[in-house]
Write the structure tokens for this entry.
Amino acid sequence: MRDDYLKEANKVIPDACLLINVVSRRVKQLRRGNRPLVESLEKLSPEDIALREVIEGKISYEFVDE
């Protein structure tokens, strides 16, 4: 996982626990075969792809009241 991506994603989602949950759910989707929402010229790990998606605003989240 690239440190610079992590720092940038943390600016978008400041809560570290929430960021971890969002990224880990997206990584699971990517590993199951879902296509990335961002394009890259370099080979990135699923974790880095998910972080880039957060940075570029391609992933959203919401809190659900139960």
